[in-house]
């Protein structure tokens, strides 16, 4: 579940794009609808609008497995910088993003990096120090190549990976037992302050900051059984780390930039099993988002938002132990009966990072198939005799 990330300034993970010409042709090709097809479509639409009164409009829920399909709209960036994009594109060409908390290829941090890259942004990441070697080795050996494929057929390129542990603001904060821990051996400059200094030296500035990390050492414990140290550790790693990252990065963020974090509905609703102070940490993160939006907006013209994402079968989430139950619950009770994909959260982040959302700041944006709007779980036996719409 930990996502504190970073990678040493000495470690480079440069992966050159590999563009498939056949995929480019598919992406750039336009769909032409003939007048004849349009008329046929309107005829079918007109005929389907007549609803028989003999059939009930609402069908009763019957027990059984929920069927769902994934519907994903991908962000796409043209490879030719000189060619204007049609419509209302998410265009992040010329922007640089730092994503804190990328340690594998199946979490929300990775998905956000891909969507930002698809929109044209340059990607640099921070990886939790103990996970750094495995992450960089997987990149070099091509283990992530399949998941690096962008909509235009090219591969996402990560310009640089920094070692990072966002629990510590500066070298003086690091306790001796961590300094001498073998999992940190061989890495340097991984506190928040040092990482920002390295990024400034290497790149000068960034435009987008993404906080995709959290940790609660006692997350499996009910709040009443959580120790003070466990509670404060969850707050430190999951919420204050965002404050620290933003405070240190703001001086090198370009005006008009954007910062995004990830939260969870447990901040405002009871989610049994999500303990150890993690629900409190997410509530603090959302409150901080509003305050930081005001301060960063007034002082640096930087927007601050957070995405409340639904459950995902990531490695980090599996550590909690009940992620499959939460996904099944969402499928049964959310307004949209489909499994949430990481790409959908990534695309929302790309929108929030783009000029298209230039007036949005201090917001909690829900990307959870609408589950946050529900007041009850409609799969309860209590509602067995109630006619409730169901996706077939």
Automatic annotation (TrEMBL):
Q: Which reaction does it catalyse?
A: a 2,3-saturated acyl-[ACP] + NAD(+) = a (2E)-enoyl-[ACP] + NADH + H(+)
- InterPro entries listed in its UniProt record: Enoyl-ACP_Rdtase_NADH, NAD(P)-bd_dom_sf, SDR_fam
Q: Which UniProt keywords apply?
A: Chloroplast, Fatty acid biosynthesis, Fatty acid metabolism, Lipid biosynthesis, Lipid metabolism, Oxidoreductase, Plastid, Transit peptide
Instruction: Give Gene Ontology CC terms.
Output: chloroplast
Q: Which Gene3D superfamilies match?
A: Enoyl acyl carrier protein reductase (1.10.8.400), NAD(P)-binding Rossmann-like Domain (3.40.50.720)
Q: Which domain of life is it from?
A: Eukaryota
- For the keyword Protease, the answer is no
List localization entries: Plastid, Chloroplast
Enzyme Commission code(s) on record: 1.3.1.9
For the biological process aspect of GO, one term held by this record is: fatty acid biosynthetic process
**Pfam families from the UniProt entry:** adh_short_C2 (PF13561)
Pathway connected to this protein: Lipid metabolism; fatty acid biosynthesis
The Gene Ontology terms for molecular function here are: enoyl-[acyl-carrier-protein] reductase (NADH) activity
What does this protein's UniProt record list under function?
Answer: Catalyzes the NAD-dependent reduction of a carbon-carbon double bond in an enoyl moiety that is covalently linked to an acyl carrier protein (ACP). Catalyzes the last reduction step in the de novo synthesis cycle of fatty acids. Involved in the elongation cycle of fatty acids which are used in lipid metabolism. Required for normal plant growth.
Subunit structure, as described in the record: Homotetramer.
- Family the UniProt entry places it in: Belongs to the short-chain dehydrogenases/reductases (SDR) family. FabI subfamily.
Q: Output this protein's name.
A: Enoyl-[acyl-carrier-protein] reductase [NADH], chloroplastic
Naturally occurring in which organism (per UniProt): Theobroma cacao (Cacao)
The uppermost taxa in this organism's lineage are: Eukaryota, Viridiplantae, Streptophyta, Embryophyta, Tracheophyta
Gene label = LOC18599097
